[in-house]
Specification:
It is a single chain. The chain has one domain. The chain has 3 helices and no strands. It is elongated.
Length: 70
C-alpha cells in the first residue's frame, strides 16, 4: 500500500469538524466531479459515440462497475 491509499490526517480532522449537511455537500461534489472525469475519459475512449451512448456507458459503469455495453 502506498501513502496515497491512506487518508491524510489533516483532511480527516477538517472533515470531522464539518456539519453533517456540509459533509453531504462535499460528498455530492466529489461524486459529480468523479462522474465528470469518467465521462470525459469515456469520450476519449469512444470518440465516435454520441452523447446518448456515452451516458449509457457512464450509467453502466455506475451500476455494474464497468462501462461495457455487451
Amino acid at each position: 500500500m502506498s501513502a496515497a491509499d491512506h487518508p491524510d490526517p489533516q483532511q480527516m480532522r477538517v472533515l470531522a469538524r464539518l456539519a453533517p449537511e456540509r459533509k453531504l455537500e462535499v460528498a455530492r461534489r466529489l461524486r459529480e466531479e468523479a462522474l465528470a472525469l469518467k465521462e470525459s475519459w469515456l469520450r476519449t475512449r469512444h470518440p465516435d459515440e454520441d452523447d446518448t451512448a456515452i451516458r449509457r456507458r457512464l450509467r453502466a459503469w455506475q451500476l455494474h462497475g464497468h462501462a461495457w455495453l455487451d
